[in-house]
Amino acid sequence: MENKGLNKVGLIFEKIDNHEVLAKGFKMTREEIIQEMLDSGLKGRGGAGFPTGMKWKFTAAEKNPDKYIVCNADEGEPGTFKDREILDRVSNKVHGGMAIAGKAIGAKKGIVYLRGEYRYLLPKLMIELDAFHKMIKEIGYDFKIEYRMGSGAYICGEESALFESIEGKRGEPRNKPPYPTVSGVFGKPTSINNVETLVTAMMIIQHGAKNFIQYGTKDSRGSKVFSVSGDTPSPGIFELELGMTVQQFVNEFGDGDTKAVQVGGASGFCVPRKKFAETIIGFEGVPTGGSMKLFNSSRSMYNVLHNYLEFFTEESCGQCTPCRVGCQQLLKGVEKVKKGEAKSTYLNELMKLADTMKIAAKCGLGQSVGNAFKSIVGNFKEEIIY
Amino acid sequence: MYQVGNLVKELSEKHGHARESLMPILQAIVLKHNYLTDEAMVEVARELDISAAEVYGTASFYTFLDTQVKGKYVIRVCKTITCSMKGKGDIIHTLEDMLKIKVGETTPDKQFSLIETNCIGWCHKAPAILINDLPYTELTPEKVTEIIKDYMQK
């Protein structure tokens, strides 16, 4: 496995001449932009990791001239706070990335869906958006962005639930297919990209795919913004090259007593100390939308798991049974085992339930509850039982 | 006083009468009054020409679109793992003592509501709360006491 070590990078928050990069992007043809994205190997930075170039290619191929580019700023994964920071510091690059994506897929309209918890950013963002609209008008390019607000629902970070919410409905995920590239918001072909992905796309236009692939590994190109929290002397936001091991990460951010790192938030994976050295942070190992939570030996992993299960029980939209009932039963199940009301072997039944949810749940929320559940129960069984 | 008649008309003129205007309209009412009354939802339904059940169904899906009485200042305390590890419990106790209410309740003078919420994206500066739209981070019992005292004088 390729191991790049821990390298701090300063590209995402770097101040750039937006006008110049956009003028460069707008001079490229649609095909050239998409090819550049494909060559860069960029995978979505929201957590799911779908290749951005492919998403743009599929949306570009749709005949309907009425298309949308949607920026997913419904950052709700526990432990993730990078998109807020990006919007706060370099919203210009987010808007720019949307315009470039718009050019690539042939969309004249963009929508940013911002989570309700970040509403305090809106007045500033509106001023910056006005300036952005003036700037692209000067360049002579026609593209309009509007903001829509969320109202405190984690599930709306799921792309089709997000579309439902923009359309003024309950944020319940849709059946797929059709995928957003065919039928997204308002039933139109839509490319939906994470905040950081759009900024990274700007970076690729600026520096070129050739330079971008100097960073990261074959499976995980480039650098990524990590949100570091928990038992660490240096919590905060760090842009790091992809391809380091959890051990290298812990050496930099741990407090000397790290027993586990939760990579990818509540829907991600728990890596115990014995697996730090062999686990790569990236799509070849444990993928992450950026959430990195460190736990030291004073923490009870039962409390961590219980907190995550409460989170999912509350945030499940309730539409499909495997997720609605599954989340409740996992939560009740670990409580019973802890209190001694069920035998420890009952955990095996719960593990099977988590597997069933992965197969049977309708969307990514229910499908990923098992990630944290299985990796925490699997690695810290004694803490769950006693 | 919670009066919605004109407000809903003004908002639907501003945002439009299409279904997609529903969220912005409900959000604007909540921004002004902190929660939605049955009358407000019926009025919105009439303006957008959809059933009141559709409006209630949508509003009740979103935790920030409250359909129960809420105070002028809604305090949302993050309870997700990092805030929970870093002293959320002390913050809740302090707030309960100061406001003389429990989590989930509103003060009799309708000034403050105290609720818990899921991750608000300030894990690196835990524990954190939102008071209406504004985040307050790296809290201690002393710090949160000062903040609430300021709000009490507003």
Describe the structure.
The complex is a heterodimer of chains A (386) and B (154). Helices cover 46% and strands 14% of the residues of chain A. Chain A has 14 helices and 9 strands. In chain A, strands 6-5-9-7-8 form a 5-stranded mixed β-sheet. Chain A has a 4-stranded parallel β-sheet with strand order 3-2-1-4, sandwiched between helices. In chain A, helix 11 (321-339) packs antiparallel against helix 12 (346-360). Chain A is globular. The mean pLDDT of chain A is 96. Chain B is of the alpha+beta class. Chain B has a 4-stranded mixed β-sheet, with helices on one face. In chain B, a hairpin with a 2-residue loop joins strand 3 (129-131) and strand 4. In chain B, helix 1 runs parallel beside helix 3, helix 2 (22-33) runs antiparallel to helix 3 (38-48) and helix 6 packs parallel to helix 7 (141-152). The longest helix of chain B has 12 residues, at 22-33. Chain B is elongated, with a radius of gyration of 17 Å. At the A-B interface, strand 5 and helix 10 of A face helix 2 and helix 5 of B.
Keywords:
heterodimer, A: 386 residues, alpha/beta, de novo design (two linked rop proteins), 3 domains, 5-stranded mixed beta sheet, 14 helices, 9 strands, globular, B: 154 residues, alpha+beta, Glutaredoxin, 4-stranded mixed beta sheet, 46% helix, elongated
Topology:
The complex is a heterodimer of chains A (386) and B (154).
Chain A: H1 18-27, H2 30-40, H3 52-61, E1 68-73, H4 82-105, E2 109-114, H5 122-139, E3 144-149, H6 159-166, E4 190-194, H7 195-207, H8 209-212, E5 223-230, E6 236-241, H9 246-253, E7 258-263, E8 269-272, E9 291-296, H10 301-315, H11 321-339, H12 346-360, H13 364-379, H14 381-385
Parallel strand pairs in A: 1-2, 1-4, 2-3, 5-9
Antiparallel strand pairs in A: 5-6, 7-8, 7-9
Helix pairs in contact in A: 1-4, 2-3, 2-4, 4-5, 4-7, 10-11, 10-13, 11-12, 11-13, 12-13
Chain B: H1 5-15, H2 22-33, H3 38-48, H4 52-59, E1 73-78, H5 81-85, H6 88-99, E2 112-117, E3 129-131, E4 134-136, H7 141-152
Parallel strand pairs in B: 1-2
Antiparallel strand pairs in B: 1-3, 3-4
Helix pairs in contact in B: 1-2, 1-3, 2-3, 3-4, 6-7
